[in-house]
């Protein structure tokens, strides 16, 4: 399946010298997943994530936030597009016909096109269960730190074991794009005017009727309860991904909290569904490596061997797919850069995600491996056994993707 039918010629475009304050107006529309930055030629895109990850002055130029993303061809395979969206961390990618920008493809466009085929996969197989949460009394500054430290976009807010709200990067745009001085009160209507993904369907409570001074320190001290989204949208782990996508579309959300007997234990996002589209068909496993240019003290074959050792680690657990990302920090020790290694394993017993940091690829990978092994041991007490998917299973799930 290619993307020819989901390329949209309707998109928001700004020049690089446009002020950042205009982005907030564009993102009032929850359907806008990103804007195209185009001067004399295409330069890149800006998404809510770039806008929300740090404080910006309203008169800052959009060009300083531009995100360089992959360019797509009109006949690009949908699986490749899903992977490129994950790798580039962008829900909007440009489509070029030759040298000319002909349109864009969005994450919603991809999911809408493949939604009928997602009934063979469940939330339990795609969700992330290493749930990171905050309590309502935590500060906005603490929330930003957690979002950035864990490299996540959604943060459930839990009180006494119940999910009472959720905070996403999209919810904080009005707090990160503001002058150093000024005052602004909360909205009693509960509707966020800055276009977080649940702004039109579920109601958004931004609480707080008091003044919000522009001074950054005071903004960072705001309690999470003042900026979180309520109510929380939840889903059962046995629901299909088709149902999950339909629910997200219905409430203009980009994530759902996964609960069992009312207790939150995971989260499923649109990115998780995109990731499911890239799983290998035929039951075979691949080890996909990103940031391979950072590897100089370990061989690819050694990495594959490490992944293979996870097979049968938990009484017959089978690894179906593995992805390993390396990211370089600025810090160095005796000339060796500090790296972050992230491992994501898809197994027949669910998904495992772990990360670790170290000087050099080998050190960072070993740290991440140790975290992963601890997760597997801890989950063993309640993990459930599943029969390894057979050929018929994979044909039902992904056969449509292989059709010419």
Automatic annotation (TrEMBL):
InterPro entries with a match to the protein in the record: CBS_dom, CBS_dom_sf, Diverse_CBS-Domain, RHF-like
**SMART domains listed in its UniProt record:** CBS
Q: Mind telling me which PROSITE patterns this protein's record contains? A: CBS (PS51371)
Q: Which residues form the CBS domain?
A: 65-123, 126-183, 228-284
Pfam families hit by this protein:
CBS
What are the transmembrane regions? Answer: none
Keywords assigned by UniProt, alphabetized: CBS domain
- Region described as Disordered: spans on this chain: 180-209
| Superkingdom | Archaea
Low complexity: compositionally biased ranges: 189-203
Q: What is this protein called?
A: CBS domain-containing protein
Origin species: Halolamina litorea
């Amino acid at each position: 399946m290619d993307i020819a039918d989901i390329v949209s010629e309707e998109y928001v475009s700004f020049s690089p010298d446009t002020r950042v304050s205009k982005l907030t107006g564009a993102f009032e529309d929850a359907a806008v997943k990103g804007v195209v930055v185009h001067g004399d030629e295409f330069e890149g895109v800006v998404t809510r994530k770039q806008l929300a990850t740090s404080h910006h002055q309203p008169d800052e130029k959009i060009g300083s936030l531009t995100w360089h993303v992959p360019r797509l061809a009109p006949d690009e395979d949908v699986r490749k597009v899903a992977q490129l969206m994950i790798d580039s961390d962008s829900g909007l990618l440009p489509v070029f016909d030759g040298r000319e920008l002909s349109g864009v493809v969005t994450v919603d466009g991809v999911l809408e096109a493949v939604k009928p085929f997602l009934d063979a996969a469940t939330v339990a197989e795609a969700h992330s269960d290493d749930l990171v949460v905050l309590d309502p009394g935590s500060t906005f500054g603490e929330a930003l730190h957690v979002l950035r430290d864990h490299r996540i976009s959604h943060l459930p807010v839990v009180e006494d074991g119940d999910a009472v709200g959720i905070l996403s990067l999209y919810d904080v745009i009005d707090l990160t794009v503001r002058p150093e001085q000024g005052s602004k009160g909360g909205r009693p209507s509960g509707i966020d005017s800055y276009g977080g993904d649940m702004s039109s369907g579920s109601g958004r409570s931004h609480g707080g009727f008091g003044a919000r001074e522009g001074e950054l320190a005071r903004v960072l001290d705001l309690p999470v309860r003042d900026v979180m989204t309520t109510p929380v949208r939840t889903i059962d782990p046995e629901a299909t991904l088709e149902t999950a996508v339909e629910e997200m579309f219905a409430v203009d959300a980009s994530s759902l909290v996964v609960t069992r007997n009312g207790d939150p234990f995971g989260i499923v996002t649109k990115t998780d569904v995109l990731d499911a589209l890239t799983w290998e068909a035929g039951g075979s496993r691949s080890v996909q490596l990103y940031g391979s240019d950072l590897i100089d003290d370990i061989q690819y074959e050694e990495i594959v061997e490490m992944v293979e050792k996870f097979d049968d680690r938990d009484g017959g657990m089978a690894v179906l797919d593995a992805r390993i990302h390396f990211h370089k920090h600025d810090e160095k020790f005796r000339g060796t850069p500090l790296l972050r290694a992230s491992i994501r394993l898809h197994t027949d017993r669910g998904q495992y995600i772990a990360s670790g940091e170290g000087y050099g690829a080998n050190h960072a990978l070993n740290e991440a491996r140790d975290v992963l092994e601890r997760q597997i041991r801890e989950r063993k007490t309640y993990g459930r056994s599943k029969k390894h998917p057979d050929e018929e299973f994979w044909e039902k799930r992904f056969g449509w993707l292989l059709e010419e």
